[in-house]
Each structure stands twice: as structure tokens, then as C-alpha cells.
Design brief:
The protein is of the alpha/beta class. The chain folds into 2 domains: 295 residues, UDP-N-acetylmuramoyl-L-alanine:D-glutamate ligase (3-Layer(aba) Sandwich), CATH 3.40.1190; 129 residues, Mur ligase, C-terminal domain (Protein-Tyrosine Phosphatase, Chain A, Alpha-Beta Complex), CATH 3.90.190. Helices cover 40% and strands 18% of the residues. The protein is built from 19 helices and 17 strands. An 8-stranded mixed sheet has the order 4-3-2-5-1-6-7-8, with helices on both faces. Strands 12-13-17-14-15-16 form a 6-stranded mixed sheet. A 3-stranded antiparallel sheet has the order 9-10-11. Strand 14, helix 15 and strand 15 form a beta-alpha-beta unit. The radius of gyration is 21 Å and the shape is globular. The two termini are 39 Å apart.
């Protein structure tokens, strides 16, 4: 099989949540455990850090991987979904898994796939774990897909568990209340394994503290240890002054979204625990790792600035909390007129997100080329109820090009609403034209 044939097989043969939604979810860990057993239980052969949360888990995963790389550790990184290349999901020291490894794994277990019928995500997890074990990584940072308790990644026993925050997303799978969603995320908390919680929300604190008590594990809340005092952002960097028990500390990251201040605090809290075991890790590595996240790990789509004139930004924010973070960032931006290219998927709380958006922006309604995408026509109809006006574009880049053509030098173009819409933006095209 060629690499293209391998991907076609995986996409066509295996149920894939990012394409078809909840029908692809297997509500137990059986298939993952079977696949891992078939591969020699690779998840037991490397140290790991497990990260869950509604928003921020991707940023925290990449930040932490970058920090560990700077400390000299051979660091695996498993995240999802990918934006442009399937291999983005599985990296070692920032380098994507080779195409040959994806082919080899698929050919080795193709017959077994057809016997047990795993999901796309279950196969991807097993592939990542085998690759990390064979490459003898020192540590792997593992991001959950969604939830935690029944997530396919939850077959590892990590050195540290991290839950970034809890918000309303995937309610059809995780529950309708914040405590219910927190209960599912808390499923990654293991016996006597420390856990860091990014945000101490009044509705979820009790869920986490009770689970930690059950599991006899130490728990810390990052926002109680590192409290942002001043936040300054530019198109390329974020600088934060934190109040700590010892006074104040300054940290910077190349992820310029102001919401990264919370994520950075979570990483700082995690590092304070990890330094006891990963003894080579020091504060200099912490600072360098946070400042070179994109370079070290290839992270994209988090307040990603492609141009400064006009300001052209991509952000994968796609649920209520994510959109609130984007709107907070917009309050600190200077622009004449705002142009928003937006597309969403059917199983999100679309109306809640639309109700938050500004009426004085120009809208370019589009959809990604996946079955889960909400058709641009339907998105426009829903948006009209909230006073949002604009045109329909069946292709993402057509919407982007129209928005950029309409924008003056002092305007701003924002692409948001769906990971998949952001993934379909041709970055190289816009960078070359810059």
C-alpha cells in the first residue's frame, strides 16, 4: 500500500468522529485494549503525561512537549484532530511520524482491524503508542480525544494527569451539566498519580477533589498558584506577569492569544510537579520551551497570525467557552472593520456561539468538506436570527479570499468556528502572497 492508499483505507474503513460524529464513538476501552495487546502493550513501555479538558488541552499539550524537548528529553506528542496532515497527530520532538510507519502499522494489523472493527481514533491511539515505544521516547504527552473516562487514550498510567478546564461541549456524549462533564474528564485521574486542574470553577471543584480523595492522589489547582496580574500581547508573543506564593514571575510564549495565560499557568503548575521526576528540567528550559512552542512542536490554529496588514488570524475556537476567549481577545485588538469567516459542525451548540458574535462584523459563511459540517446556507439562516449578516461560500478558501479582498489595511479578518474550517485554509498561499 502507498501512503495515500493507507489513508484512504483508514478513512473509509474505520468510523471517524471528526467526519461522522457520535456514531464513531465506542463507549468502552475494549478495542483499544485489544489493539494494544496485539501490539505488545506498548503503552506500558514509556512514561507519559495525560491531558484532558474542554478547551486548552491542545495548547497545554504542545507547551509541555516543547518544555520537555528543551530539557533534552526525547518527547512524544499525541494530539487530535489534525488540521492538514494526519501525521500531525503523532510527533517526536516535533517531527511527524514517517509515512512508512503509518503504512507498516496498517499492513501489520489490517486483518485484525477487520475482525474487531475499531474506530479510527482507537487505531490512531494504538499506532501512536507502538511508535513511541519502538522509538524509546523518554516521555510522551498524550491528549485525550474527548471526555476522559472512556477515551481511548485512557489505558495509560501516566506520571501526571492534567485537566485544563470544563465547559459545555460534546454534551450529547458527556452530559448536560458542568459537574457531569467534569465527572467524565475526571476519569483520567489514577490511583496515587498527581493531578493538576487548570481552572477552579465553583461547579466542578468538588467533583475533582472528591475523585482525588477516592484515588489517594495529590491535587493542585493551577489558577490558585499562578494568578495572571498583567497580560500584554502582540501578533507574535504573549507576556504575562503572575502572582505566586513567592511574589511575581514573568513568562512569555509565542502563542499570542490572551487566553493562553490560563494555559501557561497550567503548564507552570505541571512543571513544578514534573521537575521532581524529570530532574534535568529547570526554569530556563521552561522559559525557552514556552517561547518556542510553534517552532518545537508545529502547533497551528491558536490565534495564528498569517498577516499583519490587514490583520489575518486563524483560531480553532468552536464552542461557547472558546468563542468567549476569542471575543475577549478581540476587545484588545485595534481594527477598523472586522470580517469573520465562520463555519461550524452540526453537533455543536451553534446557536449559543452565534448569540455571542458581534452584529457589526461582516460575515462570510462557509463549511468544511466533511459530512459533519453544517451547510453554509443553514449557518447563515441561524445567524440571521442574531442579526449577523453576510454571504455564503461553499469553499473555505473562497470565503477567505473574498474577505481579504474586501478588507482594508486597517481591518481584521478572523477565521473561526471549526477546527476543520481552519484546517482547510491554505496557509502557504496566504504567506506567499503576504
Amino acid at each position: 500500500m502507498t501512503y495515500a492508499e493507507t489513508l484512504d483505507y483508514l478513512y473509509a474503513r474505520l468510523p471517524m468522529f471528526t467526519r461522522i460524529g457520535a456514531a464513531a464513538i465506542k463507549k468502552d476501552l475494549t478495542n483499544t485494549l485489544l489493539l494494544c495487546k496485539k501490539a505488545g502493550n506498548p503503552q506500558q513501555l514509556f512514561k507519559s503525561i495525560h491531558i484532558a479538558g474542554t478547551n486548552g488541552k491542545g495548547s497545554v499539550s504542545h507547551m509541555l512537549a516543547s518544555v520537555l524537548q528543551e530539557a533534552g528529553y526525547k518527547t512524544g506528542l499525541y494530539t487530535s484532530p489534525h488540521l492538514q496532515d494526519f501525521r500531525e497527530r503523532i510527533r517526536i520532538n516535533g517531527a511527524m511520524i514517517p509515512e512508512a510507519e503509518v503504512i507498516r502499522f496498517t499492513e501489520d494489523y489490517k486483518t485484525y482491524f477487520e475482525a474487531i472493527e475499531p474506530s479510527f481514533f482507537e487505531v490512531t491511539v494504538a499506532l501512536a503508542f507502538r511508535y513511541f515505544a519502538e522509538q524509546r521516547v523518554d516521555v510522551a504527552v498524550i491528549e485525550t480525544g474527548l471526555g476522559g473516562r472512556l477515551d481511548s487514550t485512557n489505558v495509560i498510567t501516566p506520571e501526571l494527569s492534567i485537566i485544563t478546564n470544563i465547559g459545555y461541549d460534546h454534551m450529547q456524549l458527556l452530559g448536560d451539566t458542568l459537574p457531569q462533564i467534569a465527572h467524565e474528564k475526571a476519569g483520567i485521574i489514577k490511583e496515587k498519580i498527581p493531578v493538576v486542574i487548570g481552572e477552579s470553577h465553583p461547579e466542578t471543584v468538588a467533583v475533582f477533589t472528591e475523585k482525588a480523595r477516592e484515588k489517594n492522589t495529590p491535587i493542585i489547582f493551577a489558577d490558585q498558584l499562578f494568578r495572571p496580574q498583567t497580560i500584554q500581547s502582540s501578533p507574535v508573543e504573549l507576556n504575562v506577569e503572575y502572582a505566586t506564593e513567592d511574589g511575581t514571575s514573568f513568562f512569555s510564549t509565542d502563542l499570542p492569544g490572551r487566553y493562553q495565560a490560563k494555559n501557561m499557568a497550567t503548564v507552570l503548575a505541571a512543571a513544578s510537579i514534573l521537575q521532581k521526576q524529570f530532574t534535568a528540567l529547570n526554569n530556563e528550559h521552561l522559559r525557552k520551551g514556552l517561547l518556542h512552542v510553534k517552532e518545537n512542536t508545529g502547533l497551528m490554529g491558536r490565534w495564528e497570525v498569517l498577516r499583519e496588514t490587514p490583520l489575518f488570524v486563524l483560531d480553532v475556537g468552536h464552542n461557547e467557552d472558546g468563542m468567549r476567549q476569542i471575543l475577549e481577545q478581540l476587545e484588545h485588538q485595534q481594527y477598523e472593520k472586522l470580517h469573520i469567516v465562520i463555519g461550524m459542525v452540526k453537533d455543536k451548540d451553534v446557536e449559543k456561539v452565534l448569540s455571542l458574535l458581534p452584529q457589526n462584523a461582516a460575515y462570510y459563511f462557509t463549511n468544511a468538506s466533511i459530512p459533519r459540517a453544517l451547510p453554509a446556507e443553514e449557518l447563515k439562516e441561524k445567524a440571521a436570527k442574531y442579526g449577523l449578516q453576510g454571504s455564503i461560500f461553499p469553499v473555505v478558501d473562497e470565503a477567505v479570499q473574498t474577505a481579504l479582498a474586501a478588507a482594508t489595511a486597517d481591518d481584521m479578518v478572523l477565521v473561526c468556528g471549526s477546527v476543520f474550517v481552519v484546517g482547510e485554509v491554505d496557509r502557504e498561499l496566504y504567506k506567499r502572497a503576504n
